[in-house]
Amino acid sequence: MLVLSVDKRLARWDTGTEATNILEFYFPYQPTALSLSADGSMLVATSNNGSSAVWVYNSEGLLTHWLDVPPAQGMINSLLMTPDNNHILTGRGTAKITVETEYETKEESSDFHSCQFWDRNRGSYAGSLGHSYSLNDARISTDGTMIFTQSARRIYRWDINENGVASETRFLETGYFTPYDFDNLELNPGTGENGRMLLGTRVQSSIYLMHPVERLLHMSVHTDASRFAVSPDGLRLISNSSGNLTRFWDINLDFPTVKNEHPSRTSDLAFLDNEKSLGAISEDMFVRIFNAAGEGISGINILEPGEALSAPEHGTMGAPEIIGLQVSDNGQRVALALQYVSEDILGEITSDTFAQVYDLSGNEPARVFD
After folding, report:
1. Cis peptide leading into 232, omega within 30 of 0?
2. What is the rounded CA–CA span in Å between residue 307 and residue 94?
3. CB burial readout 260-292, b (16+ within 10 A) else e
4. Residue 267 and residue 302: Cα distance in Å, rounded?
5. What is residue 320's DSSP assignment?
6. Per-residue pLDDT tens over the stretch 159-174
7. Within its chain, how far is the Cα of 124 from the centroid?
8. Exposed / middle / buried, residue 214 (Cβ in 10 Å: 0-12, 13-18, 19+)
9. Reduced to 3 states, what is the DSSP secondary structure of residue 284?
10. ∠87-4-353 over CA atoms, to 5°?
11. Considering only Cβ atoms within 10 Å of each terminal Cβ, which end of the chain, N or C, has fewer?
């Protein structure tokens, strides 16, 4: 289990039988994002009052080098590795920074409106993808030829060849005079028989599924969802709802059709493969595994962080929420974030986020990857 903690620490746990801390990583600044690559290596982003860095670990958990990623603006909230493992893509959102003047100390918002490429081995800057607003998500195709970046108002497609960015396309917009923003961004590989690649995004209660190459609408799904996921073959969709329902959709028909509903309140969703999907049930600290019919067949019991958290004095701390479900390409590892939100007596809100990685490759019940 990998644990990103508020005390600038990443802990690695072996929990085959009982949790035993076997290795810890300490950072000089607060971790903000984590990514596990296909080759087993690990990336961790840290932030210090607007300044950001990316720490690169090999598959054995050893620090090989770290990258200073200027400028000192915004905060890295997403990390991607290109399929060839040669470049790192960092996306940033808005950050709160402390500014000291001669007369006072105050908080200001710090923004940065582009994704940046960095050479993984040399650490050198290799280009950027610009936006008009701070980014909230990014996706890359499995062959590395397309990158999609999303801000609140706009989605860009960047076509990539051996020389770098070949072209950019303003793929989709919400419009600047509407109060609605893009949320969620999903790109499936389109594998399997009759598989199709789809780019999915959500605006309010509508999920839009687009053909990423042709830039044509495949289907829109209207439902009261906050999270959704698309199967690797692009034939099925799973969505949560504002109530205690998780819906399973057939999107291989002329119209999206609900094939089953499961009575569970899920905070995030993902697919393990074309048949099995995941639903995070925060109130039970559990990730349920569903079969193709939408029936719960097994699950992952989420462990509490090794570091105990407590509410601020005279304040409150909410129950943990499971967010950010990610699945490895082979469907054998599941990464998630466990988030605790606290509010002090003055109304200031803070979040503590812990990242965990679970191994599903064996015949034994799901265990934490060690």
Report:
1. no
2. 28
3. bebebbbbbbbbbebebbbbbbbeebbbbbbee
4. 14
5. P
6. 988 888 889 999 999 8
7. 25
8. exposed
9. helix
10. 110
11. C
- Evaluate whether 190 touches 196 at the Cβ level (below 8 Å): yes
**Which region holds residue 248: left if phi is over 0, alpha if psi is between -120 and 50, else beta?**
beta
Cβ-based neighbours of 323, under 8 Å, separated by 6 or more:
267, 268, 280, 336, 337, 338, 339
* CA–CA gap between residue 230 and residue 324 (Å, rounded): 15
- Give the contacts of 17 (CB within 8 A, at least 6 positions apart): none
- Which pTM does this prediction carry? 0.80
Residues in contact with 54: Cβ distance below 8 Å, sequence separation at least 6, in sequence order: 43, 44, 45, 46, 66, 67, 69, 76, 79, 88, 90, 118
> Hey, what are 353's tokens?
């986020």
**Distance of alpha carbon 83 from alpha carbon 187, whole angstroms:** 14
Token pair of 289, please?
A: 């595994």
Angle at 326 between CA 44 and CA 139, to 5 degrees: 80
Farthest CA pair distance, the chain? 66
CB-based contact 183:203 (threshold 8 Å): yes
User: Tens digits of per-residue pLDDT, 198-248?
Assistant: 999 999 999 999 999 999 999 999 999 999 999 999 999 999 998 889 999
Rounded CA separation 133/276 (Å): 36
